[in-house]
Amino acid sequence: NKYFVYHADTGKTDTTEIHLSVPRPVAAGTIALTHARIVTLANRKVIEDGTIVAKAGRITCVGECSTADVNKIVDAKGKTIIPGFIDMHAHHRREDAGVTPSRNFESAVYLAYGVTTTLDPSAWSQEVFSLAEMTEAGRVIGPRTFSTGDAMTSGDSAHVNELTSYDATEHNIARLQSFGATALKQYLQPNREQRQWITEIARKKGLRVTGEGSSDLLHKLTMLMDGQTGFEHPTPYAPLYQDVAKIFGQAHTVYSPTFTVGGTAPWNEEYFQQISDVWKDPKQQRWIPWRQLMPHLRRRWLRPVTDYHFGVQNQGLADIIANGGYGAIGSHGQAHGIGSHWEVWMLASTMGPMQALEVASVHGAHFLGAEKDLGSLEPGKIADLMVLNANPLEDIHNTANIAMVMKAGTLYDADTLDEIWPEKKAFGTYYWINVDELRNDTRAVDVWDKRP
Hints:
Elements: E1 2-7, E2 12-17, E3 30-39, E4 46-55, E5 58-63, E6 72-75, E7 80-83, E8 85-87, H1 105-112, E9 115-120, H2 125-136, E10 144-147, H3 166-179, E11 183-186, H4 192-205, E12 208-211, H5 217-225, E13 230-232, H6 242-250, E14 254-256, H7 269-275, H8 282-287, H9 290-293, H10 310-322, E15 326-327, H11 338-351, H12 353-368, E16 385-388, E17 402-407, E18 410-413, E19 419-421, H13 435-440, H14 445-449
Parallel strand pairs: 3-6, 3-7, 8-9, 9-10, 11-12, 13-14, 14-15
Antiparallel strand pairs: 1-2, 3-4, 4-5, 7-16, 16-17, 17-18, 18-19
Helix pairs in contact: 3-4, 6-10, 10-11, 11-12
């Protein structure tokens, strides 16, 4: 929030601080969702027929609740309510390239799939934090977004971050924090001293530290010992033996395997591409542009499920969690929206539905340091949730069968993101062009024939 003017003739710098505040939109009033199955994720408590009441964006009651003075009552009989997903490795700020549309599909699609919070661990600082602030100000519709900003890139004298000394490292971390970074991304720093500078400064400034996965187990273990709080991407060591699972777990590390990409076998996103026509999915077609959805998904490999590595990688994460560690989902931006659910489905193949849902919400909130506000459905927490048409504890794939999404008390239709409450308004206008109709429309003949 500073503007600098450097005077070459005098060597002096003028600094102007910019102070700007805008009101955060709050869902004024009270809303109740009644007669629903509620998977609270608070100590795995499930309420078979209960009510959730939210006031001014926060939950005030879960279970047996009075609706006497509630402004809006939504009958959720036959539905299942779960917390909103927290995707801790979601790159979804790429398409606008410095231009900030008010209806940004890369943000909106995540919310449409019930992802209410994301972390982008490596993004262009000048863009991601502006979009995050615009979302919180109600100018853009999407999940609340956290980020590391620009990654702390590798090298003894990295050109981007200039980690040439402790002071230089602290200067660059302060710059990222001033943008809005809540965590730092160590990107394969080869020099342990540099990694120690980053973790020590992060500890001092109250920042989390996450890092790119690597094939060097010793590299990871030294980072863990030095205070690294999280790791991304699968470790290529499979299976993980008990000594490794124990040290990761007892250090309370967050391990986000980011199952969709990387690992010891074909990328796991290809498994879901081969078992379903993702590109024909109406919801994907609504939100994802043709150029990103169809060209690569209409042709795919067909492999036995045993060719994929998510089962054995999953077991390693389960062992870390059993020893006191944490996991997180991370769709990596491979398949916007639905990819977060693929992560959960892969987790459930080893852990079962309940623990998979915990990793998708409770563990993500832990990594953000936001356990008091996010992750479970409890009084006092932010009202982030999904209203599902079917029970995910019976079939985990039901997580994608979403009727409504609530973010901070505002209720949306999950297909269109039209706001249901506290206001009733459309997300935006969708324009569909049928080429055959256009060819046969005499009013468009001249335009069609003169098209470039």
